[in-house]
Amino acid sequence: MVKPRDAADETTEPGSGAATIVDVAKAAGVSPSTVSYVITGKRPISPRTRRLVEETIRKVGYQRRPWSSAMVSQRVGVLAMAVPLRGGENTGTEMEFFAAAAAAARARHFDLLLVTHDEGIAGLRRVTSAALADAVIVMEVAADDPRLPILLTAGQPSVLVGVPDRPDGLTCVDLDFRAAGAACVTHLADLGHRSVVHIGPPPETYLGKISYATRFLEGVTTAAARHGMRAASGSCSSSAAEITACLDGLFAEAAPTALVVDNEKALPLVLAAVHRRGLRVPEDLSLVAVSSETVAKQQRLRPTGVVIPARALGELAVERAALQLDGRSTTGVELLAPRVMVGETTARAPR
């Protein structure tokens, strides 16, 4: 196994004036050794100091030097994946992504090491500082994700499935969720709908500023304004009672003729709640969904909507990690274009 590098050995950086640990220490008002301990996790640092150092790392643009060719020759044959496992709460999208990533990793002779949300930042820091994996794939990226300083300073290849507010120096892949939101609304506008309700993921997703959710909502809002549509948005957890209450409030506010459901766990419950209201889909109410292929196939009516290319993203994330391990740059944001697949849940707006 590769011996972990000591970040304290990297206080100087050869080349064109790149930021160093000394620069981070001066900007944060701490010692270089403190910065090193934050990066490697070798000694406990107070949460307040850790946050200060990590934010300073982002501000000054410090990046740890890449592994040397000798280190590359000692790969451990493992890709780490920070994956949002939640017991029985996982979605079809996550499972499709993981299955595809696992197959793509096996084809390249890598094993996968899961770093779950329960392990959080500490788990990711342990994996990177101890060189337990050759590269890291991170899912459910937030706008200002606290894991980013760890990735930027690890010196290991990493791939984000999602796009933070500041993606400089990072490799990001995802569905273009902003375009997906706009495409869903545009499809409904073309059918003559003028009032739409957006059902989003649970409130904690927005509180955590998870990038896909905020980008999708931006796409919905922008497209609705462009088409002169009245739009309302709600955030629903995946319980029948909460979804019913959420719909009651939204229907009273917007009197919609169409729904856009960006919450695949809630999709079957939304359909059931609509049925209980005595509304027929699509005769009385059209519905566009954003979901995995797995969830779409499970519905009684094949939903019109955007199928999340989870399998393609899983393969792409592994491919980008492998390219970095071969010494090729993949820095940048790569978004897959959405496509609305017409199913059985949309029709022209009722007159």
What is the topological layout?
Layout: H1 21-28, H2 32-40, H3 47-60, H4 69-72, E1 78-83, H5 92-107, E2 111-116, H6 120-129, E3 135-138, H7 148-154, E4 158-161, E5 171-175, H8 177-190, E6 195-200, H9 203-207, H10 211-226, E7 230-235, H11 240-254, E8 258-261, H12 267-276, E9 286-291, H13 293-298, E10 304-307, H14 310-325, E11 332-336, E12 340-341
Parallel strand pairs: 1-2, 1-3, 3-4, 4-5, 5-11, 6-7, 6-8, 8-9, 9-10
Antiparallel strand pairs: 10-12
Number of strands: 12
CATH architecture of the largest domain: 3-Layer(aba) Sandwich
* CATH superfamily annotation of the largest domain: Response regulator
Which regions are unreliable across 5 or more consecutive residues at pLDDT < 50?
A: 1-16, 67-72
Strand arrangement in the largest pleated sheet: 2-1-3-4-5-11
Q: How many helical elements?
A: 14
Query: What class do helices, strands and sheet pairing give?
Result: alpha/beta
CATH class of the largest domain, please? Alpha Beta
Q: How many domains make up the coordinates?
A: 3
State the helicity in percent bands: 40-55%
Can you walk through the features of this model?
The protein is an alpha/beta fold. The chain has 3 domains: 7-60, lambda repressor-like DNA-binding domains (434 Repressor (Amino-terminal Domain), Orthogonal Bundle); 69-175 and 311-336, Rossmann fold, CATH 3.40.50.2300; 177-308, Response regulator (Rossmann fold, 3-Layer(aba) Sandwich), CATH 3.40.50. 43% of the residues lie in helices and 17% in strands. It contains 14 helices and 12 strands. The chain has helices at 21-28, 32-40, 47-60, 69-72, 92-107, 120-129, 148-154, 177-190, 203-207, 211-226, 240-254, 267-276, 293-298, 310-325; strands at 78-83, 111-116, 135-138, 158-161, 171-175, 195-200, 230-235, 258-261, 286-291, 304-307, 332-336, 340-341. The strands form 2 sheets. The protein has a 6-stranded parallel β-sheet, sandwiched between helices. Strands 7-6-8-9-10-12 form a 6-stranded mixed β-sheet, sandwiched between helices. α1 crosses α2 (32-40) and α5 (92-107) runs parallel beside α14 (310-325). The longest helix is centred in the N-terminal third of the chain and has 16 residues, at 92-107.
